[in-house]
Amino acid sequence: MVKAIRIHKPGGPDAMVYEDVSLKPPAPGEAYIRQTAVGVNFIDIYQRSGIYAMPSLPHGIGMEAAGVVEAIGQGVTEVTVGDRVAYAGGPPGAYAEKRLIPAATLVKLPKAIDDKTAAAIMLQGMTARYLLKQTYHVKKGDYVLIHAAAGGMGLWLCQWAKALGAIVIGTTSTDDKAKLAKKNGCQYPILYTKEDFVARVKEITGGKGVQVVYDGVGKDTFLKSLECLAVRGHLVLFGAASGAPDPLAPGALAAKSASLTRPTLFHYVATRKELLANAKDVFEVVKNGTVKIQKPKEYALKQVAHAHGDLTGRKTTGSMILIP
Question: Which of 90, 213, 215, 286 pairs as cysteine with 145 (C-beta 3.0–4.6 A)?
Answer without folding.
Answer: 213
